[in-house]
DNA sequence: GCATCACTATACCCTAATGGGTAGTGGTTG
DNA sequence: CAACCACTACCCATTAGGGTATAGTGATGC
C-alpha cells in the first residue's frame, strides 16, 4: 500500500462543493510531479464512492458542505474502511471543528486561505505520513487541549442524534415544547424526552442554555 | 467608460484571501475572450489600491476576509469613487450579509459553490450592467423584503431600562431567575418582574426567545 | 435466525421554573 | 405632584425538566 516512493506520485482525491476551488487545486497539483489529483467530487456521497473506487493515498475533504457535513463524511470514510490520509481542507478555524476533525481520525487540517506553495509543501508532508495542521491553528489547538482538562464534557453536536439536532434547532428558534411538537407532528411528551436527552448529552441545564449555545455555535443549518 | 463593447474584454479585479480560489478563477477567466482578469489581491487594502490604479470594469469581492471585512471594503471602494460593478463573491448565504451587501451598493451576490459555466454566464450579465444574484438566494431575498414590511415593532434594546438590560444579559447567558437574583443580589420575584416587563417591551413570548434574540443582536457587550 | 443495541416515540408522575396579574413601598426627577 | 423606576410580595396557570417504563423499528453481531 505504500505509494509514497520516489517514482509513483501520491494520488489525491478532492471532495469539495466549490467547483472553482477544485479548479485551483487541480491546476496547482498539475505543476507537481509527485502529487497527482486522482479524482474530484462535489458532493460527499460521490466522494465516499470515489474513495473506495480509487483508493487514493490521501483525501482532501471540505468541512462545510451542504447536506452531509465534513465530519460526518470523515466518519463515513473511516467506517467504510478507508485507511489512507484524510486532510480536512476548510475555511473554518473554529476550535470545535478542528478538534472534532482530529478526534474523528483526520490526519491534517489545512485552511483554504493558505499560500499555494505552502500547501504543496504540507501535502508532501502528508504523503510522507506526517500530520499537518495550519500554523495559525496550533495556538488554538493548544488552547483546546488545555481546556480539555478542565472541561471533560465539551458540548458536541455530533454526539446528538438526527432527531435531537432537529429539536435543538427549533428550540434555538425560541419555540416551546408544545410548538415543536406541533411542528414536527409528535406529542409534547416526546419532545420533552428529546430535550432531556440533548441537555444531558450537551451537559447543559436548561433549554435557554441550549438555545444560546446553539445560536452561538451556529446550529441553525 | 463603456468598455463592454465587442472588441475589448471586460476587465476584472479579484479581491479574495484564498490563493487557491484565485487560481481557479484566473484559470476560468483565461478561457474566456470577453472576460479578462486585470488584477488580484489577497488583502482588502491592496484591492482598494488596485481598484483605483486599474479602474477595472468590475470587482469580484470576497465577503469573508481577515481584518477588514467585505462590507467595509465595499463601502471603502464606493467612498473612494469607484463607479464600476462590484459583485460580492462568497460562501455566506446569510440573509443579513446579502442584504447588507446590496444596501451598500453591491451589483451582485454570487455564491462560491456555483458552477463555473454558470459563473461565466453571470459575469457576462454583470458586464452588461445587469444585477446578478445566485439563484438559491432569490427566495431568501424575497423573505427579507417581506419581513421588512410586516415587522413594524422591531425589538429594540433602547426601550429597556438599564436594569432590564442587565437582566436580559444574564438571561442570554442561560441563567435561571433564581441564579440571576443571586448574582444581582435581589429576590427572584423582582427578577420575574423585570423579565415580564422586558418580554412585553420586546414583544417576545418566552425567555428563550429573548435569549436567542439577545445573542443574535449581540447584547452581551 | 436470534440477541442486542440505538433511536424514536409514547405514557404517567412529580417537582421546579416560568409568565402574568394585582398590589404596595421608596426614591428620583421633571 | 405625577410619572417612572427598582424592588418586594402573593396568587395562579402553564411550562419545563427529570424519573421510570413500554414498544416498535432498523442496524449490527454472533
TrEMBL record, chains A, B:
Domain HTH luxR-type, chain residue ranges per copy: 153-218
GO biological process: phosphorelay signal transduction system; regulation of DNA-templated transcription
Keywords: DNA-binding, Phosphoprotein
Domain Response regulatory: 11-127
Annotated positions of the 4-aspartylphosphate modification: 62
UniProt cross-references to InterPro entries, sorted A to Z: CheY-like_superfamily (IPR011006), Sig_transdc_resp-reg_C-effctor (IPR016032), Sig_transdc_resp-reg_receiver (IPR001789), Tscrpt_reg_LuxR_C (IPR000792), WalR-like (IPR039420)
Superkingdom to which the source organism belongs: Bacteria
GO molecular-function terms, A-Z: DNA binding
Pfam families per the UniProt record, alphabetical: GerE (PF00196), Response_reg (PF00072)
NCBIfam families according to UniProt: PRK10651.1 (NF007935)
Alphabetized PANTHER family for the sequence: NITRATE_NITRITE RESPONSE REGULATOR PROTEIN NARL, TWO-COMPONENT RESPONSE REGULATOR
Protein name, as recorded: Nitrate/nitrite response regulator protein NarL
Organism: Halomonas lysinitropha
Amino acid at each position: 500500500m505504500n505509494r509514497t516512493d520516489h517514482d509513483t506520485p501520491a494520488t489525491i482525491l478532492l471532495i469539495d462543493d466549490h467547483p472553482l476551488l477544485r479548479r485551483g487545486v487541480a491546476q496547482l497539483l498539475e505543476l507537481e510531479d509527485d502529487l497527482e489529483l486522482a479524482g474530484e467530487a462535489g458532493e460527499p456521497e460521490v466522494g465516499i464512492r470515489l474513495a473506495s473506487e480509487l483508493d487514493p493515498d490521501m483525501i482532501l475533504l471540505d468541512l462545510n458542505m451542504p447536506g452531509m457535513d465534513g465530519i460526518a463524511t470523515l466518519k463515513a470514510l473511516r467506517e467504510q474502511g478507508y485507511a489512507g490520509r484524510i486532510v480536512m481542507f476548510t475555511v473554518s478555524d473554529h476550535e470545535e471543528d478542528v478538534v472534532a476533525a482530529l478526534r474523528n481520525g483526520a490526519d491534517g487540517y489545512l485552511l483554504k486561505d493558505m499560500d499555494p506553495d505552502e500547501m504543496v509543501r504540507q501535502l508532501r508532508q502528508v504523503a510522507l505520513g506526517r500530520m499537518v495542521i495550519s500554523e495559525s491553528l496550533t495556538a488554538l489547538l493548544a488552547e483546546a487541549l488545555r481546556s480539555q482538562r478542565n472541561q471533560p464534557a465539551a458540548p458536541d453536536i455530533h454526539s446528538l442524534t438526527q432527531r435531537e439536532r432537529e429539536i435543538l434547532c427549533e428550540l434555538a428558534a425560541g419555540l416551546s415544547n408544545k410548538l415543536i411538537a406541533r411542528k414536527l407532528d409528535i406529542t409534547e411528551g416526546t419532545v420533552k424526552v428529546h430535550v432531556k436527552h440533548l441537555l444531558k448529552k450537551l451537559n447543559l441545564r436548561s433549554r435557554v442554555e441550549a438555545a444560546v449555545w446553539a445560536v452561538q455555535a451556529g446550529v441553525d443549518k
